[in-house]
Design brief:
Helix content is 48%, strand content 14%. It is of the alpha/beta class.
């Protein structure tokens, strides 16, 4: 990690992180989910901030937490029920991006996805850095082949390989399309933001035409407008074939309320941790991977005020 990021005081990191983290317990996160639905009409997807696993007991704690998240989500009425987002690196002490074999991760995710299927809860496998792409898509295919159709995945449009990966997706599944925050070399991914956003729109249209449910995830308001106003009509998609997703804490509420008035679903990605020390470490890693995040966070704070 960049030593400059390591020396940022924990209190300052927490100050920046707090608007974007739904607390330090599942109970607090569920309270946020309930409030979002009741007061603002927004759906949610829950994510546990628990990467960089070093001990088997940490991986097992993450699995047990997700099983509890399934039970909590299942207690919410279907029309407001949160989905769950799973990161494969949260369940293994042998991560692929460090040269490991991800042992235990697929089996752990199967436990969670099966429990969720039995409870009527939708899940999504998050897409991490490029080292995890094949593993994630292979796990997704296996789960669907075994009848676990309650699991979707994330695709990062900045990666050059994503156009081919679209062909690997099980028919009709949910796909969250994102540009991708992980810094990748130019031979692996686009570096021009306008090209990334155009790919986001292009791939969204292709998925809609193929009958997938598209979760269009970006904070770029103009990009969302183009998706809703141009891509969706061109693809002939109904409003129950897609939704717009943004990150909890990013100030776009007025825009999201406008979408809701048009009958368009909107969902916030709601992360939480089992302790602020874990949330702080998560944000440090994101800042290390994407230093421009500090500027974006600061800009959002001024926007919110």
């Amino acid at each position: 990690m960049n030593p400059l990021i390591r020396i940022i005081p924990a209190a300052l990191v927490r100050f920046f992180a707090k608007p974007y983290v739904a607390g330090d317990s599942l109970a607090k996160a569920m309270a946020v989910v309930t409030r979002l639905q009741r007061e603002r009409g927004l759906l949610a997807t829950l994510d546990l901030l628990a990467e960089d696993i070093r001990r088997p007991e940490q991986a097992e704690r993450n699995v047990e937490t997700y099983l509890a998240m399934v039970d909590a989500a299942a207690g919410v009425p279907v029309d407001g029920r949160p989905t769950l987002s799973l990161k494969p690196s949260s369940y293994t002490t042998s991560p692929l991006h460090e040269g490991g074999d991800a042992r235990g991760s697929r089996e752990a995710m199967r436990r969670i996805v099966q429990r969720a299927a039995d409870a009527g809860v939708e899940t999504t496998i998050d897409m991490e850095g490029r080292h995890w792409t094949d593993f994630t898509l292979d796990a997704l295919a296996r789960f669907h082949a075994d009848g676990l159709h309650n699991v979707g995945c994330v695709l990062q449009t900045r990666l050059h390989r994503t156009e081919q990966d679209l062909e690997r997706l099980p028919a009709g599944m949910r796909v969250r399309l994102v540009i991708g925050i992980y810094q990748e070399p130019a031979e692996i991914a686009l570096v021009d933001k306008s090209e990334m956003k155009q790919r986001l729109l292009t791939f969204a249209e292709r998925l809609l035409q193929r009958g997938h449910y598209v979760e269009f995830a970006t904070h770029d308001v103009e990009c969302v407008r183009r998706f809703v106003g141009e891509v969706v009509p061109r693809a002939g998609a109904a409003k129950d074939q897609f939704e717009v997703q943004m990150l909890y804490g990013v100030p776009r509420d007025r825009f999201l309320q406008g979408l809701l008035r048009e009958g368009i679903r909107a969902r916030l990605y709601v992360p939480f941790a089992l302790g602020w020390d874990l949330a702080i470490e998560y944000l440090r890693r994101r800042l290390d991977e994407y230093p421009a995040m500090m500027w974006l966070v600061t800009k959002n704070m001024f926007w919110r005020s």
